[in-house]
Design a protein that fits this description.
It is built from 13 helices and twelve strands. It has helices at 13-25, 55-70, 87-101, 130-139, 158-171, 185-189, 195-214, 241-252, 271-274, 288-294, 324-333, 348-355, 365-376, and strands spanning 33-36, 39-42, 45-47, 76-78, 111-116, 177-183, 218-224, 258-264, 278-280, 283-286, 298-302, 338-344. It is globular, with a radius of gyration of 20 Å.
Amino acid sequence: MSSYETLEGHATPDGTKKYAQRAASQGRPAAHFKMFDGLCLSSIGMGTYLGQLTQEDDVAVENAVYQSLRSGAVNVVDTAINYRAMKSEKSIGKALLRLVKDGKISRDQVFISTKNGYVTNDGDYPNVDVMEYIHRMYIQTGVITADDIGSGYNVMNPNYLAKCIDKSLMNMHLSTIDLVYIHNSFESWNQDVSRQQFMEMLSKVFEVYEKYKAEDKVRYYGMATWTCFRVSQGSHEYLSLEQAVKNAESVGGRDHGFRFIQLPYNLAYSEALLLRNQSVGSERNLTILEAAAKLNVGVFTSIPLFQGRLLGAQIPDYGGLSDPVSKLVQIVRSSPSVIAPLIGQKKVEHVEENLKVANTPPLSGEEFKQAVRLLTGQQL
């Protein structure tokens, strides 16, 4: 049996800058890369949510990651331990090993994020379903109790999350994960616990992440969300970003690792840009994008194409773009505070099509305002 290989290191300012410089030498516009905390990150990221638990899709995801990272258009890859029952993480690991062996990239040039919290099985053992796997691996062994599983099949028990990080590191052959998110936690738990209880649970989660950060196994952490940053302040599902950041400060001090959030944002889900539901200090009526900027939190966004549902929409041409993917992605990647939308892609032709927009710089501030007016009828 071949020995297990680990890729040492993590995304660094020098490494990501080198990636961006190589991309520029191949004709990509410099503005395609955004700076955050010294890192040079592509304004398009790759998502790995979709796919079956087949060997065919394992290979397709691996090849799409390989193709995306070597293209010079993408140095951000996003996944979650439960995506395709761990198989997406394993495909990423194989692609990264190949890329490094082939001399296409080095580990310090790419930014890898994953998520944990949802229960998952291991897709390489297809005869063991999710609940049986959780029972065998975690409940029987005393890592968690059945009561630790919320009604949304989500677990915030620190023991479980620690095991998930260890497993993600193994799956992806990494010594360090650049970013770990707690996955849809408030959405999964707000029916089960009070807001105060949730915040106490979140502090315990952040303690785990801070421990792994101190051990250099995780560089940053954050919250990957679905609705909590996209609803009005009075809603039961609402969460204040400032409160979450204060939570991290109380756990990790000024140098805490909570530096990123993820939320859905596209032409159908435009709340990130238009809904004024956040406060920071004495400032009220901020959008989540404005609040994130003030709190020094980077934003990645999910479902820019609404899982393909927006591709048939009649979207006016703008900014010199006419193909549907570019029109959907350009407005998101040009939004203030957004580092990159994450686009799911498996097929070779989809990768090529989705990455075309990387040849165009994001819109300038004025062009962005005009595009928003054209696409949404709203004045910024």
